[in-house]
Q: What sequence folds into this?
């Protein structure tokens, strides 16, 4: 069932490793089939070296296993909370990549300091509050998703396809698993360059809003003109 | 047409990736044939893994496509503005390399703090002003080139073959596409070492002017004595 | 004798190199057989490229060579002091990995700033005092172990499987040589992200205690629920 | 003539690249035969990819070419000044490695903050003064060697086998070309960890003198006990 989605999720998980975003086994990617209401996700604690497409676990929106013999990632309830709240998304990547995790641990949003950031995120990448002791006790992973959704009350998920969970790390998403991983990579680069920018000039205020909008919109939305016309050979 | 130039531009684009200067697909190299008045440039949004020499797009100085089925890089008008203003140059490289981009985002020139810098750049690498809202709206990419040219009013392009566009990143150039990429690599290293130098000693003032001149001139210009005599086997 | 332990120790030593934790030849891993009271350890000053499983030296708890023609690592007395004091451990890794060594040189514990840290260490990773001149003169390597043991008077070795020796670097341990290396890798990542976190927000106070406990306990101890059930295919 | 020395120098030059110490072509290693009074050195501006052992240039202590068709490295006079002044040394490595160069540009010595440093350098690695305008004009490369020799008036070259030239970068040496490169690698690691140490604790004072001495002497000099006895299989 959903062999193609499992393959996409499997390959996106390996891409996390290939891009150096994963520390140890701390990473997982999922994909969601909206029509069937089923998510494919990496099994928990299985090493990347031995992972196979068929190991991907299928669960429904309430977390019930639909197919698969292994336990799904322990972060499964966080992924499901995002798929329930963000109707536009079809893939989620979670990795403790170094610089994005540093901002999450610093409990600071990643400000938009340049066009590398603006090409992917239409504004600062926000950071959630810490979970309360009660939220941790009751349903830690589910409430991890909840604080992200709460933080996005007035934000559009596909305009800012990432959030930092305070004291934890980034969650990134997109319309597909591959796009979620690409956004994680873009986030990590933006975070690293932001750290270096603040070292070079601690007082910098960030990109003027009109340049931020321009860069985001030349790549995304109806007026986008970056890349090739549809039907023309296009890669990446 | 211009198969050799296309090949040079193709290879220089791949060198950007090889040297780790490119973040995602954010990079493009062009080359210019002065006699024909034609530029070869990377197509927009095509992944490096699938790029072929024949994909390079040929455009004239006004941006009209002379040959090629793909859209040229969206930064094409910025490249053309530089070729029009800087008669000495034959190649341009643009990559969001991490440390040079950090200085661009910090809106700070890269000061000449040592001979690694002085061997390639005869002084600080300057940073432009931000584009105005009107400039962004009217012709974003063309005006990106314009602010560089404006900043170089009293500078010689081949003595300081790079500029930082505020909030964006570096543009580097040279007499050939390969030299432009080499200057981008030198800029990135100079920028990284500058960040670390300022961490080690925030009050450092930079290299005395007489050492800066000496280092630049022993490699460039009529008195250069670095390397091998002409006719002798010389590489790189 | 103890061919399997030697092989484990040999492979764990190579893993130090593979993970980039070793600077030059500064690293050694040992393993301990509790029943026989014998430790296998890397020989001193032998390059990793030429190391063979049979080169591992076997010594008893007093440091007497039981088997092997080469000198054991000069850090042998430090390893033995830890095996004598910490009954739960079966492997020790010592490498001058860059960021963990920076904290050791800074004589600062690595605070628990996020869940990447909490997944492996149930609190801050402590730093010892400097050895006294007399301790250095009398038995430098043995007393290096002694100050770690002293620092752990009120700590549980398997809850915080690492210590920083002031001015020197980290020692990490676990139930096996492989686990000791894995903890060294986790420590290095936690240390790097901690440096970047403090750059992004020098005033950050660290992870709330209830999140720290939650993360440690979901991976370790009787209530752990991360990973797969026993008997199910489990890797890493 | 001196085919073995040329081979050693050739291999040591490639090791600079292998260890990531070289930025662009900025690096050169030489070796000196005391009996013959002849130095072998890398030719100037030749790319590492095309270098052959036979390309090494032989020059005498006054800089006269004894054998070789190519120009010797433009840093030749600096190397010769060191071989003339430091009778104990047989190899010199010069590379603009990132972190050591940062300290040179910061005009700050690299303090001994830990045992990684102390294992190779018996104290802080000193920095020279800037050359005067007259020294630059008269004999830039020769005077680069002169300021190092001047700075070592009261230091022993084999106890601190490296110097930082202000605004330029490190020169490292040893009894052989290979040892010079190894000392450059150790210097670069010590410099990087020193930057991170100072970030983690700007007020740190450095390693107590009695630990510094202990670490240097357990690896160097008549009481050294690190490694294997002579005659026993020893590598690296």
A:
């Amino acid at each position: 069932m959903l062999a193609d989605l499992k393959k996409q999720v499997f390959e996106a998980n390996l891409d996390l490793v290939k891009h150096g975003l994963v520390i140890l086994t701390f990473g997982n990617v999922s994909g969601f089939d909206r029509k069937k209401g089923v998510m494919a996700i990496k099994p928990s604690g299985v090493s990347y070296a031995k992972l196979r497409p068929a190991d991907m676990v299928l669960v429904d929106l309430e977390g019930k296993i639909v197919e698969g013999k292994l336990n799904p990632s322990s972060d499964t309830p966080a992924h499901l909370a995002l798929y329930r709240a963000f109707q536009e998304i079809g893939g989620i990547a979670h990795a403790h990549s170094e610089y994005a995790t540093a901002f999450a641990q610093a409990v600071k949003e990643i400000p938009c300091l340049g066009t590398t950031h603006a090409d992917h995120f239409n504004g600062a990448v926000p950071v959630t509050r810490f979970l309360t002791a009660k939220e941790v006790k009751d349903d830690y992973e589910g409430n991890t998703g909840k604080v992200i959704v709460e933080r996005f009350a007035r934000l559009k998920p596909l305009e800012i396809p990432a959030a930092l969970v305070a004291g934890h790390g980034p969650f990134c998403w997109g319309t597909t698993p591959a796009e979620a991983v690409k956004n994680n990579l873009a986030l990590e680069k933006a975070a690293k360059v932001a750290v270096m920018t603040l070292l070079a000039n601690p007082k910098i205020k960030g990109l003027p809003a009109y340049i931020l909008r321009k860069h985001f919109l030349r790549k995304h939305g109806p007026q986008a003109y970056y890349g090739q016309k549809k039907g023309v050979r296009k890669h990446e």
User: Anything to note?
Assistant: Residues 3-220 of chain B form a domain with the L-fuculose-1-phosphate Aldolase fold (CATH 3.40.225.10). The mean pLDDT of chain B is 93. Chain B touches chain A at residues 23-26, 43-47, 49-50, 69-71, 74, 96, 98-99, 101-108, 130-131, 133, 136-137, 140, 167-169, 195, 198-199 (CB under 8 Å).
